[in-house]
Amino acid sequence: MKKVLLLLVFCFSFGLTFSETLSDSARVSILSCGSGKELYAQFGHTAIRLTDPSLNIDVAFNYGTFNFATEGFYYKFIKGLTDYELGLDFSNDFFIRYNVNQIPVWEQEINLTKKEKQQLFDALMVNYEPANRFYRYNFVYDNCATRPRDMIESVLGGKIIYPNRNVKNTFRELVGGCVGTDTWTKFGLDFVLGSSADKVPTPRERMFLPLELMAYFQGAKRPDGKPLILKTSNVVIVPIEKDTTPFLLKPVAVCFAVLFLIGVVSYIGRKKEMIWLDAILFTIAGIMGVIVFYISYFSIHPIVAGNFNLLWVQPLHLLFVLLLPFKKLRKALSYYQLLNVIAILVALAGFVVLPQQFNIAFLPLMLLYLMRGLLYIRNQRISIIN
């Protein structure tokens, strides 16, 4: 098997074409991987495994390869301009890697004719050529799960009959199912995911998640009505880990604790302006506003647009902080805070009426900024009267 892979590498290194006729013993399967600990691995992964014992071939084609060392990687990822590439692994190495990282892997053998297997293998080899292996990654519409699906569909004439699973989760709920409903990862994602994440995806759109693709493949049929999947097995078995994070360290508990602490400090200093506290709090909100604004309006990721979090975290808070030291501007700033209070009230109402689902941990933070805004207006009114 290693000789075959070395031959592949040699051929592509020198621009040569690798051609091999598969035997009757060739098998094609989809490898679906569960959630890992790293953020990029929490949404799962998909690969195409091709084995042919007669030719000593057992390799996994992996559309999820990327390079952190790429210049401007994080900027490109946020902007939605990241290029991924098709990788090629020994299947055994693939399984070892996921076993070491304690990530489960399921294998579904695809029901293909010998001709269809050959067509798929040839197409994958063309994809693996250096000029073809890179593609512009898209979190929902073009990723490591949708590419293998499209490849399988292509050799079946694009006529796979998928089951009607009658599921109505939104994009946000599907993402939450991968990272947890009360985790700091979910907390961060709910900041950057806009109202577009709260629409119900079509069955095809749901397949952007590897385990969703696995579920649809499991009940799918070929164009001739035969089952798409011959058999399913769990090839990497790992124990199910429960979330051991203490409740007091979860986002909801921490945010309510922050609200309580700032509330106590605000009550003690209620007759003082406490510019330092507002400077800290609104600097944080302003920075978050810049991030949310940039991602919502300049990123091409499909589920970040229309972010109503900008009602309570916004870039203009940074201007408010910059002008805080100037006493002559306090009255004007109190009008700004009046607008801010109104916006936060709209955001609070948004838990019920806005077309975006807010993280429940945002509630105490909204109340915190509402409290500080009202206190600023009150203190400036007292200062003007005095």
Put the structure in a nutshell.
With about 375 residues, the protein is of the alpha+beta class.
Would you kindly provide a written description of the structure presented here, covering whatever features stand out?
The chain is elongated. It is built from 14 helices and seven strands. With about 375 residues, it is of the alpha+beta class. The chain folds into two domains: about 1-235, no CATH class; about 245-385, no CATH class. α10 (about 250-270) runs parallel beside α14 (about 360-385). It has a seven-stranded antiparallel β-sheet.
Number of domains: 2
Query: Strand content of the residues, in percent?
Result: 5-15%
Q: Ranges with pLDDT <50 over ≥5 residues?
A: 10-17
Average per-residue pLDDT, rounded, comes to: 90
Please identify the structural class as seen in this structure.
Answer: alpha+beta
| Oligomeric description of these chains | single chain
Number of strand elements: 7
Spatial strand arrangement across the major sheet: 6-4-3-2-1-5-7
Count of alpha/pi helices: 14
The description of the largest β-sheet is: 7 strands, antiparallel
Q: Whole-number radius of gyration?
A: 26 Å
Helix content: 40-55%
Shape: elongated
Give helix and strand order, one letter per element, not per position.
HEEEHEHEHEHHHHHEHHHHH
